[in-house]
Amino acid sequence: MGHQASSSAAFIYSLFILCAIQHCIAYELKANRTAFLRVTASQELGQKIPDTLFGIFFEEINHAGAGGLWAELVSNRGFEAGGPNTPSNINPWSIIGNESFISVSTDRTSCFERNKVALRMEVFCDSKGSIVCPPNGVGIYNPGYWGMNIEQGKTYKVILHVRSSESVNISVSLTSSDGLQKLASTNRIAAASDVSNWTKMEFLLQSEGTNSNSRLQLTTNKKGVIWFDQVSVMPLDTYKGHGFRKELASMLEDLKPRYMRFPGGCFVEGEWLRNAFRWRATIGSWEERPGHFGDVWMYWTDDGLGYFEFLQLAEDLGAFPIWVINNGISHNDEVDTTDISPFVQEILNGIEFARGSPNSTWGSARAAMGHPEPFQLNYVAIGNEDCGKKFYQGNYLKFYCAIKATYPDINIISNCDGSSRQLDHRADLYDFHIYTSARNLFSMNTQFDHTSRTGPKVFVSEYAVTGSDAGTGSLLAALAEAGFLIGLERNSDVVQMASYAPLFVNANDRRWNPDAIVFNSWQQYGTPSYWVQHFFKESSGATLHPTTIQANASNSLVASAITWQSSVDNSEYLKIKIVNFGNDIVNLKISVAGLQNAVNSVGSTKTVLTSSNLMDENSFEEPNKVMPVQTSLPNAGAQMDVVISPYSVTSFDLSLAQEEYRSAI
């Protein structure tokens, strides 16, 4: 009987939780609660939020860069992904024509010292004779990263390196995945004397059609042997002309990030140090970048998106860079502190590359890449999630002392969490990562309420709801994250920076769920977690005001209030954000005291993020299913009666009258 009663209770509880999660209680049956929110908006009690509070974290995971943010369309463009030994796997390159017409292999004859592998294509057929080539010739094709998105009217820059002992006649085409639809094409004819040594061919192709599943073809109907290497197709129309996919970079810009942390994450460490990200191998001419296999997320990247490009992207976004460095530690091997000096020097060289004068050794390398002015690199994170490993603290101190000795203004970030106990080593900030359930993350809105206000500041560099609550990007996850962010906002005297993770996922290679932005070769959408960040994009540098909620069982409600100034027209706003993590409708009475300027209903708005089901997600079919909806707020004022929907994030942006308007009224 006791066992039966226990099982029944567990069953009933499970049903209750299921209903809550599925948001299946009918609207008319939901309880209405009354709550009071008091905002003290006086300047005297306001607290300036750090200019740095909310930013973004980019990691090469889920093909976020290769086949994503970096606009290069050719996958394995240097034939190096199969490794340095030949013969090697040339995937995803494939042959056009059967084995009686063509044979391909790899050898180490490239002219690029750090990329020796080249593709050798031998053609047995000809335009006449005993073996005649098919009408459209034979050759090789590259489908890119799950299809190239080629758009009508757009122009693409094509580069390929060619060598042959005979004259060549190569057709370079952008076609549909089956080769039947020709979108753009050109013939490149060269005498043997022009291609007897490696020759760079560079030209533009303008597409006459659109196909989101296209490929690059290199074909010929001439007998002979041709070597190819370092083949690239890039759209001319990229974000600020710097090689980033425009739609994806624009979604980042819309968040108004104050910083960009890069390039990882575990990508920095590698499963083994031999596969870790090495900044020096990712700069200079793209043809000379050796690329590397990211053995944590298990795919090859040619490192076209390298250290320089990360710095450039941060600058283009109006954000400052935070460089996460490898401190001689991977997931499986570590460098003894007594042997760490070469690694330290490598990082000092990397900082000089970013910050040095164009006349310095490494600053001149940056200048040669087209950026003579130094980048504003003022933050360096030593390692990623390495605290507690055998040599971390010893290595950390070596890096810390060397960087501070040369660059005393650089802020150093430790991997060790100092939120519950004091660090035993020097640091300007410490890293805090949290991946957990929705309910747990929401409850963590008080996480830093009792953290010491002296010593290093908090950098919440990775946070997200994960597991069954999150799906591939649910409303439930976003609501919990919103509550957590309000807690960070409220504790911004000790929390200096925060960013969601991961940022991107190519839908064809989901290594991690959920993510902020989902894309394929031609589409993209923001998950609810992405849209929640829009509620906080005005917070950095704003003024935080004290808020008090009075309600029964008010632990499902959290709120914050800031005043911020628009950079567009200098208008000032009081933004009040409320997260309702409960199933009840809340009749909320808002009372604002201490305002210097009157509230102007003209220009005031209400923005709500919610949906009919807690597990609702966006998708390519319904990209806007869960996103903020903004409406005007005619009853805007210092005293307002408003209705807060169940399971929602609501923002009231109250336009504050300017002095001349205030005098008039």
CATH names the topology of the domain at 258-412 as: TIM Barrel
Work out the radius of gyration.
Answer: 28 Å
Mean pLDDT comes to: 94
Provide the spatial order of strands within the biggest beta sheet: 3-15-18-19-20-21-22-23
What summary fits the major beta sheet? 8 strands, parallel
Uncertain segments: 1-29, 660-665
* Distance linking N and C termini: 73 Å
What would the principal axes of the Cα set say about the shape? Answer: globular
Helical/strand content category: alpha+beta
CATH architecture of the domain at 258-412: Alpha-Beta Barrel
Number of helices: 12
CATH class type of the domain at 258-412? Alpha Beta
What is the tally of beta strands? 35
CATH superfamily of the domain at 258-412: Glycosidases
The level of helicity is 10-25%
What share of residues are in beta strands? 25-35%
GO biological process, one term: L-arabinose metabolic process
EC number: 3.2.1.55
Family: Belongs to the glycosyl hydrolase 51 family.
Signal peptide: 1-26
Provide a descriptive summary of the structure in words.
This protein is of the alpha+beta class. Among the domains are: 29-51 and 542-664, Golgi alpha-mannosidase II (Immunoglobulin-like, Sandwich); 94-235, Sandwich (Jelly Rolls); 258-412, TIM Barrel (Alpha-Beta Barrel), CATH 3.20.20.80. 18% of the residues lie in helices and 32% in strands. It has twelve helices and 35 strands. The strands form seven sheets. An eight-stranded parallel sheet has the order 3-15-18-19-20-21-22-23. Strands 2-27-29-30-35-32-33 form a seven-stranded antiparallel sheet, covered by helices on one side. Strands 4, 7, 8, 10, 11 and 13 form a six-stranded antiparallel sheet that branches. Helix 10 (475-490) packs parallel to helix 11 (528-534).
